[in-house]
Amino acid sequence: MMNSLTIKIKRYDGEKTWYQSYILPYEKGRTILWSLTTIRETLDSTLVYTSACQHGICGSCAIKVNGKSFLACQTPLDKVIETFQTTELIYEPLANFTVIRDLAVAWEPKMAKMKKIKPWLIPTEEGSEEKGFLQSNEDFHKIASSTDCILCGICASECNQLHVNESNFLEPFIWNRAYRYAVDSRDKSPEAHVGPAYENELWKCLHCMACVTNCPKHIDLTEEISSLRKMSIRMGETKNQGARHAFAFFNDVKNNGHLNEMMLPIKTDGVIKTAATKLPFALRMIKTGKINPLERPKKVDGIEGVQKIYDYAEEVENK
Amino acid sequence: MKKYDVVVVGAGGAGMQAALNAAKGSKLSVVVLSKIFPTRSHTGAAQGGINAALGYRDRTDSIEKHFKDTVKGSDFLADQDAVHFFCENMPKIISELDYIGVPFSRDVNGHVAQRPFGGASSPRTCYSADKTGHAILHALYEQCLKNDVIFLDDWFLLSLSVDNGIFEGLVAMNMREGKIEAIQARAVVIATGGFGRVFWSRTTNAINMTGDGTAACFNAGIPLKDPEFVQFHPTGLASTGVLLSEACRGEGGYLLNKEGERFMERYAPGKMELAPRDLVARSIETEIKEGRGFGEGMKSYVLMDLRHLGAEKIMERLPHVRELALNFEGVDLVNELVPIRPSCHYMMGGIHVTDFQTLATPVDGIHAVGECCSVSIHGANRLGGNSVADVVLFGKFAGIGARQTAERRDFAPTGKLEEELKRWREEFGRMRAKKSGIKFFEIRDRMAETMWYNVGIFRTETEMAQALKTIDAAIEAYKDVYIGDSSEKYNMAFINYVEVGNLLKLAKAVALGALNRKESRGSHARADYPKRDDQHFLAHTLVYYDGGNYRLEYAPVKITTYQPEERKY
Amino acid sequence: MTTFRYGFFPGCTLESAEKELKMSTLKVAEALEIELIELKGWTCCGASHIQDIDELVGTSINARNIALGEALHVDKIITVCNTCTLMLRQSKKKLDERKELRDKVNEGLSRANLKYKGTTEVTHLLWALIEDYGLENLKKKVVRPLTGLKVANFYGCHILMPPKIMGFENPANPQSMEMIVDVLGAENVPFSQRLACCGFHAVFPAEKEVNRLTQMNCLSPKEAGADCLVTPCPLCQMQLDAYQPGAQKGFDKDIQIPVLHLPQLIGLALGISPKELGIKRHIVDALPMLRARALV
Which locations, inside or outside the cell, does it occupy (chain B) (predicted)? Predict the structure, then answer.
């Protein structure tokens, strides 16, 4: 039987950082936000966090609990306790954000980044301020999920690329905005959104699925990133490592069924770059027998069938 | 001293519309000041939709019908010239929102989809599933990004400086730095939202809906119009008060009592569950009072049944509502009944706006728009789907109005402004240094409790007199509050302290307005005066605050077309 | 005892750089009397890349792979790769939930005289050992408990996420690896990068960042006192092992740590020789450490 919770909060006052522990009585059916409010109103009114609507639509209250990000207002403490099998909880501000004080983070730098992908409609000539647009229900559904984003920052906090990225990689919620406008039937210039997405390290997404896993609005962020990549390829952006790498898989499967690992670096980076950068790596691999430069993958049984499936997909695509 | 031509306070739907339109085609410097990041604003919580007589779903719908429904819904307290202006401009506003990319749900012809809503004689509520406010708020924010609107995020309005009727500017705190500054302005647009938090935990409102702008205007001598009219939304979740959209009833949800009856038959045999909010909320409370509800006391409730809509329709039209019921009540409304109870939702009253085309107030230079003000188009009861409509439409005209004001009006001297600045800096210093006293949370809870029990859905003279006493005592106690945080930077305790002060000031106006209105009209239901009294109270309440005293006056209602008649549904 | 029979989907790396994983998987299966029937004519799963070119191709090739398994009349297809598991399950989920897509894909498959029916599940060896084989049974087969071996479990992303497709355990705090390691008699070492991403899928376009990840992913268990990393995914293994010397270059802290495949660790406890498990085929040699722990 649980009687109490120990909540350790990462504090920051603009200069120093420390962890402070609070003990709260356990009450069934409470949320993370309840614990923050209770600490603030009964134990320590210096604690700072952000919260507004309290029902999962304003996106203010995301924090990290025991290393994972949650929307505080709609996450039951019981769920957190069950997940981590402990009543000792550690609250920290979202990762990959600038902290203002305690659990409050700054959004302005993120919005400056978001502007790059032009997160607004570039209207086609079919619409007007006077008449609006016609849009089919099917086309509305293309943007229905992506417009659910509440800018809570959880995807960014969980993003494995952002943890190590020191350049321009965009937050998943920004990919989402680029996608949302690029696929809107009312937008005349998808490339105005996809182009900057491409230029800001679109192919650096690690495919780790942390964003889609943790999104409280269940937005399929990784599928959206994949779609942005397809759109960038259609725009002609094929001469980059990411696209070449993906094409290598695509073509190897079609030709042989299996991947030709030996040729992958060359297909991705080209001979010259591979020779310059991957040589020590390759030699190590050869030495331990991990790769055999003389070995070529055999075509799989039924490769003709695979090729027919490719042909079919191409026909569907062209239809 | 900072100096801007136009300062917009509040970055919700109304504030952002105002900022976009104030800057449009002008060289004016425009800034939006907000105590929270713009997309956190409460416009985003609007679920069900936005009304416009586009006639896509029902060709017989018209501006005249929207007009009539709104006037009738207001229990004839709305100003009919303003309502007409509102209804006739709404269709174009929807097109404008469509044109900036708001993701509206669509009908089979590709038009913006419309659904039935309470108190509406035709299905005219446009929507984006059940996240309409969210969709609009984000689209407006993105337009602000596009147009390089300057935001001062985490800036908190402390007061407006008005010297002998001359508006000078405002005093605000840069919360992150803990610096209080004066800002000189030619025009200001107050768009700070409602103050439902006078009921603290018994409201669907966000935690920051504390009426800061309304209180600042009130302090500056601008009266509050009709503050006693508080809308209780019929379908708050029983245990948390979280709002379940009116779209639930719009899409065909039933309300059931303990006997399993669709009890709305007793109160509105014609419109049933689709009667307006005030009527449905009172019906639910009557059922509970008369022993036909579930549970006891504060935990009483009735049930809403959506199961007959089927999973597919629920997922298509009410996905957010379903999630809310799952997350906050543990109920899947696809196959379970949802416990619901009315919850304070909306303030019809607010800053006295005197010109519905410019949203001007009695003080030249100060404009007000959205829930913080009263135009009044909602009168004694607002119709569902008319509030997001209100903010986007009047936000636009407030922006245009403020632009015109700023182009015409020069900066005023700053004598009083500097005094105000000094006063607030001292106050901040004093509160940071104060080491003992009463916690403001306690005072806030005392206020909320008395407001819920004594100035709630049914009101009586004795109870409201009691409420006034309690509020007066709380106002007295507030003088000895301590905040428990001596920090300079991001001192939320100080902000909350000021917010509670604002709430107290406004709560008293609500109670006074209610006590003096000896009739029942719209949301204001007096058990001791159950009838509407047009002879004495077909008038707007105006509450003034001068020198710490509250004074009430009444102003005529503009009636252009519809004479008051009995309101039947 | 029940017989355990699976359609085996090895995945590309098992045919080339990670041959030792195929060796060790087959050896372990044999020792546990699990029958693995390799799908005849299987192709690459797309490795999370093909969908970036053509989603229909990505789904179709996996529909084909699963159909090959269905033809074997097995309940489940088994893999030993996180990404293969995700790719197959993702396609399966789409095909099972969207009839329109299934019909479209089946039209393509019909040209190869195949049909996706949706009758076979897709699992990973890690899951199968827990939910099919049973930890108790596994424990009975342990002949050389890995006493004293300090193991850092590196899950890799795709065995956990997204849970709507994977769903075996809570990705915020999985326990399956720890349960297996317990049964094998080794000691679990908690470390901060336990649930981190290895970065393998973007090692070319995001070389610098993935290099940084490898530094952190190797340093964290090492500082926590682990003897080795173990992972259920050959791609994580390759990233952490084969790219480790590159990551070490220019990094001032020593990150050297051996990285084992899960079946190798199990194989050791089952008494299978390091040679049969292909332990020598790693870039960072695990044998000195195993010898020091008297496990070989």
Answer: Membrane
Which residues in chain A belong to E strands, given as ranges? Answer: 4-12, 17-25, 62-65, 68-71, 88-92, 99-101, 104-105
Q: Which residues pair with C124 in a beta bridge?
A: C79
**What tokens appear for C192 in the block?**
């901060």
**Tokens found for residue A237:** 């952006």
Residue of C nearest to A278 (CA): C246
User: Residue B76 pLDDT more than 70?
Assistant: yes
CATH topology of domain B2-229+348-415: FAD/NAD(P)-binding domain (3.50.50)
Q: Which pLDDT tens digit goes with each residue over C233-260?
A: 999 999 999 999 999 998 999 999 999 9
Answer whether residue C1 shows pLDDT above 60: no
d(CA C268, CA C146): 8
Least confident residue range of A20-24, A256-260, C31-35: A256-260
Active site amino acids of B: 277
> Does one domain contain both A145 and A92?
no
Please indicate if any CB of chain A lies within 8 Å of the CB of B153. Answer: yes
Q: Do C161 and A213 touch (CB under 8 A)?
A: yes
Touch of C by B (3+ CB pairs closer than 8 Å): no
Report the chain B residue with the minimal C-alpha distance to residue A126. B99
In this prediction, residue A1 carries a pLDDT of 58
Contact C159, C124 (CB under 8 A): yes
Which residues on neighbouring strands pair with residue B181, listed in sequence order?
A: B172
Select from B278, C19, B434, B531 the least CA-distant residue to A289.
C19
Cα Rg for chain C, rounded, in angstroms? 19
Using a CB–CB cutoff of 8 Å, tell me whether B544 touches chain A: no
Give chain A's domain count.
3
Shortest Cα distance from B93 to chain A (angstroms)? 8
CATH number at residue A219: 1.10.1060.10
pLDDT in tens, A235-252: 999 999 999 999 999 999
Domain termination residue (choose one: A177, A210, A234) = A234
Return d(Cα A247, Cα A241) in angstroms, integer. Answer: 10
